[in-house]
Amino acid sequence: MIEDPRFKTWEGRDQNRKELNRIIEEHLAKADADDWIELFEAEDIPAGKLKDIDEVVVDPQVLHQNMILS
After folding, report:
1. How many angstroms separate the CA atoms of 20 and 9, rounded?
2. How far, CA to CA in Å, does 25 sit from each of 34, 52, 66?
């Protein structure tokens, strides 16, 4: 992708956003989120997993901060 002229500039990436997103999503689907996060962290790329509501309500930090209200 780095050599693809459609994506070399910000303008090109913006103009070809739909195709760029399709390619990225295709590659991201090849591994689990935890695997990607591990790879990103190894390269000092900020990343984090988005949690669904079932994961949030049992998150230790959420519980510790009393962030769930009745």
Report:
1. 12
2. 15, 19, 35
User: Residue 30, Cα to own-chain centre: how many angstroms?
Assistant: 13
Question: What is the C-alpha to C-alpha distance for residues 6 and 52, in angstroms, rounded to an integer?
Answer: 34
Residues written for the chain: 70
In this structure, what token pair is assigned to residue 2?
């780095």
Q: Name the one residue in this structure whose structure tokens are 């935890």.
A: 34
What's the CA dihedral at 30, 33, 35, 40 to 10 degrees? 110
For 3-35, write each residue's pLDDT tens digit.
Answer: 999 999 999 999 999 999 999 999 999 999 999
- Quick one: how far is CA 65 from the chain centroid? 25
Considering the entire predicted model, what is its pTM? 0.63
Residues 6 or more apart whose Cβ sits within 8 Å of residue 49: 33, 34, 37
